[in-house]
């Protein structure tokens, strides 16, 4: 694909598809602005090179074709203005044309207010493409969606290229997955095997060690006939879990299974935490974290890794008494010399709780897009840029 930083944008109308879908609290205040900050290099490149800049993003999931004040990008325009140190004008009606001068930044109101955005309607996409001379996709977080601003506009715009964030994400994730330094270790954790089965299968073919955690680990333990008490698990997927374990073993790789765990009797912030060997898990126990020995064993694996891919906390780290395992693994990743990549909402929350952001080699801004990349799926917003460059 073409890259924004190779384009001459002086006096041109540049439209950047960004992902400003940031978390907000009940009063609509932005609680976390990583995605806005991560978009600054592309925006600044355009402004430093005298472009007339239009930014487009979705925000939440509004009813198609309807304006919804609660999903307005107004708070984002304000925050972006602060970060850039210049005014960012929010434009409510923009599909049929906007006035923008070189050096100006306009934020186009939530693109999902337009009928046809989600379905990638060609007429809408053509109108969006007509707003610009150069279309830039810098929205890795939305790259798994084929929508009018992520796909159709790229198809019809005079020039379509990748912004620096999208390019950096693809470079980092691509390097980790296609030419990993060995040993390669993945941590795939979370409540359900079912939502991560494709990732587990795809990584099981690549990595040397597949560390599982949370409800996923419980299902893997059940697959080996280990006691898991009342823990969250998907008993209909134990067969799939067993196949992954067997296939990895057959090629000299491994799924390290916890030898000890931290259990509680109820899912609650005040639940009492007890460490025990897996063999001692009682019928009324619920596993909420890996135990100290397991954490130490896994930390040793991470310490020797050449590449680490991290998605998902290994315990209920929101409750401190069940957060030690996640914290120890986070520290092990931080201290490891491996090239480490991390992504996904819960993972980002753990990274920020344990304050290791600066020690992870690359933190993805993608949630669903990061997962689909790990699954080995083609991201439609990237595919169209590749087609346009061919
Ligand atoms: C995300 O937050 O994962 C992206 O912005 C995509 O949002 P969506 O799932 O509503 O398409």
Automatic annotation (TrEMBL):
<comment type="similarity">
    <text>Belongs to the phosphoglycerate kinase family.</text>
</comment>
<dbReference type="InterPro" id="IPR036043">
    <property type="entry name" value="Phosphoglycerate_kinase_sf"/>
</dbReference>
<comment type="subunit">
    <text>Monomer.</text>
</comment>
<feature type="binding site">
    <location>
        <position position="196"/>
    </location>
    <ligand>
        <name>ATP</name>
    </ligand>
</feature>
<feature type="binding site">
    <location>
        <position position="35"/>
    </location>
    <ligand>
        <name>substrate</name>
    </ligand>
</feature>
<feature type="binding site">
    <location>
        <begin position="58"/>
        <end position="61"/>
    </location>
    <ligand>
        <name>substrate</name>
    </ligand>
</feature>
<feature type="binding site">
    <location>
        <position position="112"/>
    </location>
    <ligand>
        <name>substrate</name>
    </ligand>
</feature>
<keyword id="KW-0547">Nucleotide-binding</keyword>
<keyword id="KW-0808">Transferase</keyword>
<keyword id="KW-0067">ATP-binding</keyword>
<dbReference type="GO" id="GO:0016301">
    <property type="term" value="F:kinase activity"/>
</dbReference>
<feature type="binding site">
    <location>
        <begin position="19"/>
        <end position="21"/>
    </location>
    <ligand>
        <name>substrate</name>
    </ligand>
</feature>
<keyword id="KW-0324">Glycolysis</keyword>
<feature type="binding site">
    <location>
        <begin position="344"/>
        <end position="347"/>
    </location>
    <ligand>
        <name>ATP</name>
    </ligand>
</feature>
<dbReference type="Pfam" id="PF00162">
    <property type="entry name" value="PGK"/>
</dbReference>
<dbReference type="InterPro" id="IPR001576">
    <property type="entry name" value="Phosphoglycerate_kinase"/>
</dbReference>
<keyword id="KW-0963">Cytoplasm</keyword>
<protein>
    <recommendedName>
        <fullName>Phosphoglycerate kinase</fullName>
        <ecNumber>2.7.2.3</ecNumber>
    </recommendedName>
</protein>
<keyword id="KW-0418">Kinase</keyword>
<feature type="binding site">
    <location>
        <position position="145"/>
    </location>
    <ligand>
        <name>substrate</name>
    </ligand>
</feature>
<dbReference type="InterPro" id="IPR015911">
    <property type="entry name" value="Phosphoglycerate_kinase_CS"/>
</dbReference>
<feature type="binding site">
    <location>
        <position position="318"/>
    </location>
    <ligand>
        <name>ATP</name>
    </ligand>
</feature>
<dbReference type="InterPro" id="IPR015824">
    <property type="entry name" value="Phosphoglycerate_kinase_N"/>
</dbReference>
<comment type="pathway">
    <text>Carbohydrate degradation; glycolysis; pyruvate from D-glyceraldehyde 3-phosphate: step 2/5.</text>
</comment>
């Amino acid at each position: 694909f073409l890259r924004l930083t190779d384009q001459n944008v002086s006096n041109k109308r540049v439209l950047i598809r960004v992902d400003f879908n940031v978390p907000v609290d009940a009063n609509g205040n932005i609680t976390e602005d990583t995605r806005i900050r991560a978009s600054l290099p592309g925006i600044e490149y355009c402004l430093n090179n005298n472009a007339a800049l239009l930014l487009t993003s979705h925000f939440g999931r509004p009813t198609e074709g309807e304006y919804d004040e609660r999903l307005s990008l107004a708070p984002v325009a304000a925050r972006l203005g602060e970060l850039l140190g210049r005014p960012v004008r929010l434009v409510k009606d923009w599909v049929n044309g906007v006035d923008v001068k070189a050096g100006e930044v306009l934020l186009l109101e939530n693109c999902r207010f337009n009928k046809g955005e989600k379905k990638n309607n060609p007429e809408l996409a053509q109108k969006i493409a007509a707003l610009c001379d150069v279309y830039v996709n810098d929205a890795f977080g939305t790259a798994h969606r084929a929508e009018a601003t992520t796909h159709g506009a790229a198809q019809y715009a005079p020039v379509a290229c990748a912004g620096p964030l999208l390019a950096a994400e693809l470079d980092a994730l691509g390097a980790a997955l296609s030419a990993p330094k060995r040993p390669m270790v993945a941590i795939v954790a979370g409540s359900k095997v079912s939502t991560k089965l494709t990732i587990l299968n795809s990584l099981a073919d690549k990595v040397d060690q597949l560390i599982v955690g949370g409800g996923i680990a419980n299902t893997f333990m059940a697959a080996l006939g280990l006691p898991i008490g009342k823990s969250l698990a998907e008993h209909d997927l134990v067969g799939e879990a067993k196949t992954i374990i067997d296939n990895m073993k057959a090629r000299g790789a491994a799924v390290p299974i916890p030898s000890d765990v931290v259990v509680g009797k109820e899912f609650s912030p005040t639940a009492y935490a007890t460490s025990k060997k897996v063999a001692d898990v009682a019928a009324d126990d619920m596993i909420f974290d890996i135990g100290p020995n397991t954490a130490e064993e896994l930390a040793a694996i991470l310490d020797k890794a050449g590449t680490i891919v991290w998605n998902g906390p290994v315990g209920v780290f929101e409750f401190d008494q069940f957060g030690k395992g996640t914290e120890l693994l986070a520290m092990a990743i931080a201290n490891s010399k491996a090239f480490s990549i991390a992504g996904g909402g819960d993972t980002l929350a753990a990274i920020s709780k344990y304050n290791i952001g600066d020690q992870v080699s690359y933190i993805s801004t993608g949630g669903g897009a990061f997962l689909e990349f790990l699954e080995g799926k083609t991201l439609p917003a990237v595919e169209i840029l590749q087609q346009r460059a061919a």
